[in-house]
């Protein structure tokens, strides 16, 4: 399916993690599904999926949220890529990024995982790091808090005021990437707000 894209929101399963920084990728995929009034359903690849389109007559989108924990996201992602016959260059991984300030979006294809275990596992399972990423900035903790604890905390009160706009912008970035390409998406979303 040449014009099919797999859009994966990384995160952890269950209500304990829903509102945490580590789950912002799943929040973005939820926003993409909500825009299309679609509901996720179970898939045999240990994920929840929505089959839809970027717009009527446009590219097909498979929106996905792995049911696995973040650090073992690769299995569900590679299973979905095989099931839908989507090549890695059309597997868009949406994830949180500590090294980008909160309320910032960066897009890239390939490169390292930057210590992100979910991205590392996806690259291993796909046997390549060459897949597009929509990186949603969550910033680093202030003081001495362990980053591993920081990502599993809910967004703070001040962050929650801006979070809906950030999630909406990241969903826009995914749509722009699919319809106009990486460079156009980078030019639009890398600019300071």
Tags for this entry?
7 strands, Rossmann fold
Summarize the structure.
Helices cover 36% and strands 21% of the residues.
Give a topology summary.
Layout: E1 4-9, H1 24-35, E2 41-43, E3 47-53, E4 60-66, H2 74-83, E5 91-97, E6 105-109, H3 117-126, E7 132-137, H4 147-151, H5 157-180, H6 182-189
Parallel strand pairs: 1-4, 1-5, 5-7
Antiparallel strand pairs: 2-3, 3-4, 6-7
Amino-to-carboxy terminus distance? 36 Å
Order of H and E elements: EHEEEHEEHEHHH
Q: How many domain modules?
A: 1
- Which sheet architecture does the biggest sheet show? 7 strands, mixed
The structural class is: alpha/beta
Q: Number of helical runs?
A: 6
Radius of gyration: 15 Å
CATH second-level architecture: 3-Layer(aba) Sandwich
Strand percentage lies at: 15-25%
Number of strands: 7
* CATH topology category name: Rossmann fold
Helix content: 25-40%
Describe the structure.
Its EC number is 3.1.1.29. Catalyzes the release of premature peptidyl moieties from peptidyl-tRNA molecules trapped in stalled 50S ribosomal subunits, and thus maintains levels of free tRNAs and 50S ribosomes. Monomer. This protein is an alpha/beta fold. It has one domain: Rossmann fold. About 35% of the residues lie in helices and about 20% in strands. The chain is built from six helices and seven strands, in the order βαβββαββαβααα. Strands 2-3-4-1-5-7-6 form a seven-stranded mixed sheet, with helices on both faces. A hairpin with a 3-residue loop joins β2 and β3. α1 packs across α5 and α5 runs antiparallel to α6. The relative contact order is 0.19. The model has no long low-confidence stretch (mean pLDDT about 95).
């Amino acid at each position: 399916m040449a014009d099919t894209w797999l859009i994966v929101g990384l995160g952890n399963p269950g209500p304990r993690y829903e509102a945490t920084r580590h789950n912002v990728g799943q929040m973005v995929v939820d926003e993409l599904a909500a825009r299309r009034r679609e509901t996720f359903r179970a898939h045999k690849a240990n994920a929840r999926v929505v089959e839809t389109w970027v717009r009527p007559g446009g590219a097909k989108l498979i929106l996905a949220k792995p049911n696995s924990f973040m650090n073992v996201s690769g299995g569900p992602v590679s299973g979905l890529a095989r099931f839908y016959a989507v090549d890695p260059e059309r597997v868009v991984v949406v994830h949180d990024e500590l090294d980008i300030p909160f309320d910032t979006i960066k897009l890239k294809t390939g490169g390292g995982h930057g210590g992100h275990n979910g991205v590392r596992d996806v690259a291993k399972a796909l046997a390549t790091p060459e897949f597009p990423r929509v990186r949603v900035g969550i910033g680093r903790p202030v003081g001495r808090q362990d980053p591993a604890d920081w990502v599993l905390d809910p967004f703070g009160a001040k962050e929650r005021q801006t979070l809906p706009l950030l999630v909406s912008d990241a969903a826009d970035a995914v749509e722009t990437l699919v319809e106009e390409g990486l460079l156009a998406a980078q030019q639009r979303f890398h600019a300071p707000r």
